[in-house]
Write a structure and sequence with these properties.
The chain is α/β, with parallel strands linked by helices and 447 residues long. The protein is globular and about 60 Å long. The mean pLDDT is 96. The structure holds pyridoxal-5'-phosphate. Pyridoxal-5'-phosphate binds next to helix 4.
Length: 447
């Protein structure tokens, strides 16, 4: 059996760390392990017990303030007043499901559809990214008449049977569907090619050929357009185009999983796929859409959607409810009113420039890459061999958490890429905190 890494286990608390915890933390971790399912993973050897958040900051139970350099769930900032107000007002008025008429879902959809290519003209709503991808796979299979889905080597697309069967990031314990095929990530740092787009398109064609050889009809390519769990692969801009052409030429559809790069995150565009100039057949959304309120969506071309939706009803009790829609509307309004896309581009570029300067001081920083406030910071044993330094990456995130109170985590098949993806409330003033913390921590760990 091929052993795949389990990114969920990389930055995680394990039983052997328990003896080093203070009594109060120990009591909570013990209680969790007694009454919660064993699949849960806590971040850090010394888990953080958070009690409050505001903007880009978090506070623990002892009153310590942290810089959140990781969480895109609270995309426009923890506890954003506009979302609180919208949810509060709607909750006081009505919350029910989508089998009654309500303007909230229509007003939001009209506004959301203005952000996507005009070919995409239908929206459906769910509660989680997993549900959105699950439906997207069903639609792809219905439209194409096939079952084969291609994802990247370290992809994560969700928790349902269909999506976990397309999520190699869950590790070797998770059986992938027989109809799932993996392509290596479009890693501009490690893949030696003059044309990454061509190279990646070829990888996809090879997997489609393999499906054909095994009697599996190709249905579609499902990809997070910033390849976040593969280790953050944003560049070169446009590299996805040839891959999408290959997908279409083979009768499949392209599903852009925008759970991570959507909603202005990458700065260059409102959606991750838009940076590459491609038009997906289906877009799926999640996390940042409701700033913490569970809401997700599927946006699609009507002809792609109709083969499924003309046959099978869809009812998701809490998907698209008035409260979720109020939260989502507030998020979209804030992104537009506060020009958070331009903010992400400006602040992200400054942050990336400062992080790149760290390469002059630290040989172990092999690569810094990103788009807007979505940055990968890759650690290697030496730049020549590019050997991933997972041990350093893990020690670094612990040091950042313990000494500098900066929260982040790791990604990628080797667990050696720091994923820097703060709430969009992250400001220029926060750059020093993050960059100095990285600098000091690397000096200490490499001393
Ligand atoms: C790219 C991507 N797709 C889908 C999901 C699943 O979303 P959810 O946890 O809301 O089900 C995630 C969650 O981490 C994700 O990162």
């Amino acid at each position: 059996m091929v052993t795949r890494s389990t990114i969920m286990d990389t930055n995680s608390f394990r039983a052997e760390h328990a003896t080093a915890l203070d009594a109060e933390t120990r009591q909570l971790t013990d209680k969790r392990s007694k009454i919660l399912g064993g699949s849960y993973r806590l971040f850090y050897r010394n888990p953080v017990h958070l009690v409050r958040g505001e903007g880009q900051y978090l506070w623990d139970e002892a009153g310590n303030q942290y810089l959140d350099a990781y969480n895109n769930v609270a995309s426009i900032g923890h506890c954003h007043p506009a979302v609180i107000e919208a949810v509060n007002q709607q909750m006081k008025m009505l919350n029910t499901h989508t089998r009654y008429l309500h303007e909230g879902i229509l007003d939001y959809t009209e506004k959301l559809l203005t952000t996507v290519p005009t070919e995409i003209d239908r929206a459906m709503y769910m509660c989680t990214g997993s549900e959105a991808n699950d439906l997207a796979i069903r639609v792809a299979q219905s439209y194409s008449g096939g079952t084969g889905i291609i994802v990247s080597q370290e992809a994560y697309h969700g928790t349902s049977a269909l999506t976990s069967g397309c999520s190699p990031a869950l590790g070797s314990g998770q059986t992938l569907a027989d109809t799932t095929r993996l392509v290596p990530a479009p890693d501009a740092y490690r893949v030696d090619t003059a044309d990454l787009g061509e190279w990646f398109a070829n990888q996809i064609q090879q997997q489609i050929d393999d499906m054909n050889a095994h009697g599996i009809k190709f249905a579609g390519f499902l990809a997070d357009s910033i390849f976040s769990s593969d280790g953050v692969m944003p560049n070169p801009v446009g590299f996805l185009q040839k891959a999408v052409d290959v997908v279409h030429a083979n009768g499949g559809i392209f599903i852009a999983d925008e759970v991570q790069p959507g909603f202005a995150r990458t700065g260059d565009a409102f959606w991750g796929f838009a940076r590459h100039g491609v038009v997906p057949d289906i877009i799926t959304t999640g996390k940042p859409m409701g700033n913490g309120i569970p809401v997700s969506g599927l946006l699609a071309k009507s002809d792609v959607l109709s083969t499924f939706s003309d046959q099978i009803p869809y009812f998701n009790t809490f998907g698209g409810n008035p409260v979720s829609m109020a939260a989502a509307q507030a998020v979209l309004n804030v992104i537009q009113q506060e020009q958070l896309q331009a903010h992400s581009q400006r602040v992200g570029a400054l942050l990336q420039a400062e992080l790149t300067k760290l390469m002059e001081r630290h040989e172990c920083v092999g690569d810094v890459r990103g788009a807007g406030l979505f940055i990968g910071f890759e650690l290697v044993k030496d730049r020549q061999s590019k050997t991933p330094d997972k041990v350093l990456a893990l020690d670094l995130i612990e040091e950042l958490r313990n000494t500098h109170r900066v929260l982040t985590s790791v990604a990628g098949p080797y667990g050696n890429v720091l994923k820097l993806r703060p709430p969009l409330a992250f400001q220029i003033q926060d750059i020093d905190w993050l960059v100095n913390a990285l600098d000091q921590s690397l000096l200490k760990l490499k001393a």
